[in-house]
Recover the amino acids of this structure.
C-alpha cells in the first residue's frame, strides 16, 4: 500500500494536494518540532491569525511520542512513516480486540485489515486529516481495555486503558477524543450492567479515563484553557448540525463509488465523500450478515446494538436526537460533523464481520441461505445497474431524474445537480450504474464461493481474501500523493519578497489553500486553517467582513480590506498562481507593532466595543477602546513617548518604554487572558495588567516614567498540568513496575508447579 513512498526514496507525501496536509501539517511539523528539538516547547503561534495558541491548540501534538519522528526524519518521510505506522497499529489493536472475544485468528486478522482500509478510516488520508488518523488509532485499544477489565479485572487492563486514553489525548483531534469518550462510556456502561454491575468494576472503568487524563494533563489542561477562549465555544445549531452523515450514503457500505469516486468521477452526494463513506466491502458485509444470524448471541447483539447507537449519533440532525443532545449535553455545542462517528461505527461493524467469518471457519459448512441470498441479491443489483445505465443513455427521464428531483427525503443539492449540471449528471448516472454492476458481480462470485465452500471448506478463506482485496484495491485507488517541493519553494520566494519590500513586522493576508505559506517563510499572516482561533479575533474578522459575529472561520480567506485591518499591521495580500508568488499592497493605514496612546474610552461590554469599532471616525492611533478601568488618571496632552519591542521567543516579548504621561501601551497582536506582564530591572512600575484593547489587541496601562517589562504567554493550566502529568507518570511507572514484577513472579511459579 505504501511501498512507493516508504521504500523507493520517493519524496512525495500521502494526501491530496491543497487539503489539510498541505495547509497546517506540512508547516506545523518543521516549525513546532524544529523548536522542540532545540528544547523549546512552542506555546504561541505568531504566524497565523495574528497569533493564536499553538501547543494548547491540540493539533500540533508536540508531546505525542510517534510525532517525535519529525525531530529525526525529513518532514515528508516522517509524515508517510507516521501514516503507515498508525494504520498498522489500528489494525493490530482491532486484531487483539476481536481475538479477546475468542474468535478464530484468521477472522481477527480479517477484521483488522478491513478496518485499516475501510472507507471511513482510510479516506482520512485523502483529505490529509493526519490527527484524525493518529487519534482514532487508539480507540480499539480503549475498547479492548474495557473488555479486559470487565472479564478479568486485572490491573494490567486498567494500566493499558490509561495509556491508550493518554495517547489519544496527546494525538490531538479533540472531536474524536470527545466522541470516543462518549462511545467508550456507553460501551463500558452496557458491559458493566451485563456483568452484574459491581462497584469494583465501575471504579476500575472510571479510572481508565481519569488516569489517562492525568497522564496527559499537561496537554489536556492547557488545551482546555485555550479552548475556553476559542471561537468554537458554543457554536450555532446550524453550524453544529452540518456535516452529518446522510442516510442515503449507507449505500457506500458495498458501493463505494455510487456517488462518485473522487478520481474519475467527482463526488456528487452531500458534504464530502472522505467523511461520508462507510465502505467495508461486499464480502465483509455478507460476513457481517452471517455473524448477525449465526454468531454467539452475546457478541452479535452487543456489537449490533453499539453499531446502531453510533450510526444514530452519526446521522446527526436527520433524527430528533441531535437537537436534544445539542441543547442538553455539554460538548455537542462545540463541534460540527457528527459524521465522524462513522469510524467508530466501523469498529463494531468489523467485529460482526469477524464473528461471521469465525462461524464459517469453525463450522466448515457455509449456510445455504447465505449463498442463495448472495446469488439473488447479486442478480438484482446487476439488473438495477443495467436499468440505470439504460435510463442514463436515454437521458435519465424515467429513473434518474425523477429519483433526484421528486423524492422529498433527498436534499436540494441533488435537485440542483440534476437541473444545472446535465452532462455531469448523466456521467454520474452511468458511473452509479457501473458501481451497481461491480457490487452485483461481486455478490454473484461470493454466492458461488459459498456453494463451493460446502464441499471444500478451503473456499471460505477465499471469501476473506476477496474482502481484503476489495478494500485494499479501493484504498489504493483513492490514495493520492503530492510533491512537497512547491510548498518549500513558495515559502522561499515569499521570504525573499518580504525581505526586498522591507515589510519587517507587517502582516499579509493569504487565501486558502495557501494560508500556511507564511509560516514556512517565517512571516506573519492574518489567515490560517486552525480550529482553535481566538473568539475575539473571529468576531473582529467577522465584523470587518460583514459576516455574522458567531461565524466560524471556514471560508477561503478575507474578502474585504476593511480599514480596521490596519490595526493588525496588514500591508500585503498574498497571491499565488501555481508557482508564481506575488504581494499586492493594501494601502491601509498600518499601526506599528507597539504604540503609546494617551487617550482611551471604557465601554461596559465587548459587544459595545465592537459596535464602537463600526464608527468610521474611530482612529486607533488617537484613542483606545477598553472594557474596564485601566486605573490611570488621563492627561489632556497628546504627547507620546518612545517604546521598543524585542521578541525573545514565540511567546516572550521584552518591552522598554519611556512614558511622559499616563498612557496605554498597545501591542498590535492578539490578546489572550494568558498573556502576563512582569517588571524587569530599571522599571518604574511595580505591577502590570494586560487588558484587551479595541476588542482583540493587547493593552498595558503605564504610568509616567521608564518601564522595562517582560510580556509572556503563560497559561496557568500549563504549570498545573505539568505537575499533574509528572506525578501521574511517577505513580504509573511505580504501579506498572510492581504489576510487571507480580506477573513475572506468577509466571515463574506456574512454570515450576507440576
Amino acid at each position: 500500500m505504501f511501498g512507493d513512498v516508504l521504500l523507493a526514496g520517493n519524496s512525495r507525501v500521502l494526501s491530496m494536494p491543497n487539503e489539510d496536509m498541505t495547509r497546517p501539517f506540512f508547516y506545523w511539523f518543521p516549525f513546532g518540532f524544529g523548536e522542540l528539538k532545540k528544547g523549546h516547547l512552542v506555546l504561541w503561534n505568531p504566524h497565523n491569525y495574528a497569533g493564536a495558541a499553538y501547543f494548547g491548540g491540540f493539533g500540533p501534538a508536540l508531546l505525542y511520542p510517534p510525532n517525535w519522528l519529525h525531530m529525526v526524519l525529513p518532514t515528508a518521510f516522517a509524515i508517510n512513516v507516521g501514516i503507515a505506522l498508525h494504520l498498522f497499529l489500528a489494525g493490530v489493536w482491532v486484531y487483539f480486540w476481536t481475538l479477546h472475544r475468542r474468535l478464530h485468528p484468521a477472522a481477527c486478522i480479517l477484521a483488522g485489515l478491513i478496518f485499516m482500509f475501510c472507507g471511513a478510516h482510510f479516506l482520512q488520508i485523502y483529505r490529509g486529516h493526519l490527527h484524525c488518523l493518529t487519534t482514532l488509532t487508539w480507540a480499539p485499544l480503549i475498547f479492548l481495555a474495557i473488555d479486559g477489565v470487565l472479564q478479568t479485572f486485572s490491573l494490567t487492563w486498567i494500566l493499558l486503558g490509561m495509556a491508550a486514553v493518554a495517547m489519544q489525548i496527546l494525538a490531538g483531534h479533540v472531536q474524536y477524543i470527545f466522541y470516543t469518550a462518549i462511545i467508550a462510556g456507553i460501551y463500558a456502561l452496557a458491559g458493566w450492567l451485563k456483568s452484574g454491575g459491581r462497584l469494583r468494576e465501575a471504579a476500575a472503568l472510571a479510572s481508565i479515563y481519569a488516569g489517562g487524563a492525568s497522564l496527559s494533563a499537561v496537554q489536556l489542561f492547557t488545551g482546555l484553557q485555550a479552548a475556553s477562549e476559542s471561537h468554537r465555544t458554543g457554536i450555532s445549531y446550524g453550524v453544529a448540525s452540518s456535516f452529518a452523515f446522510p442516510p442515503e450514503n449507507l449505500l457506500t457500505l458495498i458501493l463505494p463509488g455510487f456517488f462518485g469516486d473522487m478520481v474519475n468521477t467527482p463526488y456528487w452526494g452531500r458534504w464530502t465523500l472522505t467523511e461520508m463513506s462507510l465502505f467495508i466491502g461486499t464480502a465483509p458485509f455478507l460476513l457481517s450478515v452471517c455473524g448477525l444470524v449465526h454468531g454467539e448471541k452475546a457478541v452479535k447483539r452487543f456489537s449490533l446494538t453499539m453499531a446502531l447507537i453510533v450510526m444514530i449519533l452519526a446521522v446527526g440532525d436527520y433524527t430528533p436526537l441531535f437537537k436534544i443532545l445539542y441543547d442538553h449535553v455539554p460538548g455537542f455545542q462545540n463541534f460540527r460533523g457528527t459524521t465522524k462517528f462513522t469510524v467508530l461505527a466501523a469498529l463494531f461493524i468489523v467485529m460482526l464481520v469477524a464473528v461471521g467469518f469465525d462461524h464459517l471457519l469453525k463450522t466448515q459448512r457455509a449456510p445455504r441461505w447465505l449463498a442463495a441470498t448472495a446469488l439473488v441479491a447479486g442478480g438484482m443489483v446487476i439488473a438495477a445497474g443495467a436499468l440505470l445505465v439504460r435510463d442514463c443513455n436515454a437521458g435519465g427521464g424515467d429513473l434518474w431524474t425523477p429519483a433526484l428531483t421528486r423524492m422529498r427525503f433527498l436534499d436540494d443539492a441533488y435537485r440542483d445537480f440534476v437541473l444545472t449540471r446535465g452532462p455531469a449528471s448523466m456521467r454520474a448516472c452511468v458511473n452509479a450504474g457501473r458501481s451497481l454492476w461491480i457490487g452485483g458481480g461481486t455478490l454473484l462470485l461470493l454466492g458461488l464461493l459459498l456453494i463451493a465452500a460446502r464441499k471444500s471448506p478451503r473456499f471460505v478463506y477465499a471469501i476473506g481474501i476477496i474482502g481484503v482485496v476489495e478494500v485494499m484495491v479501493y484504498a489504493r485507488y483513492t490514495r493520492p500523493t503530492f510533491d512537497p517541493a512547491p510548498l518549500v519553494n513558495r515559502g522561499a520566494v515569499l521570504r525573499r519578497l518580504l525581505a526586498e519590500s522591507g515589510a519587517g513586522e507587517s502582516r499579509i493576508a493569504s487565501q486558502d489553500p495557501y494560508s500556511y505559506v507564511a509560516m514556512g517563510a517565517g512571516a506573519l499572516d492574518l489567515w490560517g486553517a486552525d480550529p482553535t482561533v481566538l473568539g475575539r479575533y473571529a468576531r473582529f474578522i467577522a465584523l470587518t467582513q460583514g459576516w455574522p459575529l458567531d461565524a466560524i472561520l471556514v471560508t477561503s480567506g478575507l474578502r474585504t480590506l476593511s480599514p480596521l485591518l490596519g490595526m493588525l499591521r496588514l500591508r500585503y495580500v498574498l497571491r499565488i498562481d501555481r508557482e508564481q508568488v506575488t504581494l499586492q499592497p493594501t494601502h491601509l493605514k498600518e499601526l506599528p507593532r507597539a504604540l503609546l496612546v494617551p487617550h482611551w474610552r471604557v465601554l461596559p461590554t465587548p459587544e459595545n466595543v465592537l459596535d464602537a469599532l463600526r464608527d468610521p471616525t474611530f482612529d486607533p492611533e488617537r484613542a483606545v477602546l477598553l472594557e474596564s478601568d485601566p486605573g490611570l488618571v488621563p492627561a489632556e496632552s497628546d504627547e507620546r513617548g518612545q517604546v521598543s519591542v524585542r521578541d525573545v521567543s514565540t511567546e516572550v516579548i521584552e518591552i522598554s518604554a519611556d512614558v511622559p504621561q499616563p498612557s496605554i501601551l498597545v501591542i498590535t497582536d492578539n490578546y489572550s487572558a494568558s498573556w502576563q506582564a512582569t517588571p524587569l530591572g530599571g522599571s518604574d512600575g511595580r505591577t502590570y495588567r494586560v487588558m484587551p484593547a479595541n476588542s482583540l489587541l493587547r493593552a498595558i496601562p503605564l504610568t509616567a516614567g521608564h518601564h522595562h517589562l517582560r510580556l509572556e504567554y503563560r497559561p496557568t493550566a500549563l504549570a498545573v498540568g505539568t505537575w499533574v502529568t509528572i506525578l501521574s507518570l511517577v505513580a504509573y511507572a511505580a504501579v506498572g513496575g510492581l504489576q510487571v514484577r507480580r506477573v513475572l513472579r506468577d509466571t515463574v511459579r506456574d512454570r515450576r508447579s507440576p
Remarks:
- The mean pLDDT is 93.
- The first helix runs from residue 3 to 6.
- The longest strand covers residues 705-713.
- The chain has three domains: 3-255+267-364+457-481, 485-585, 594-714.
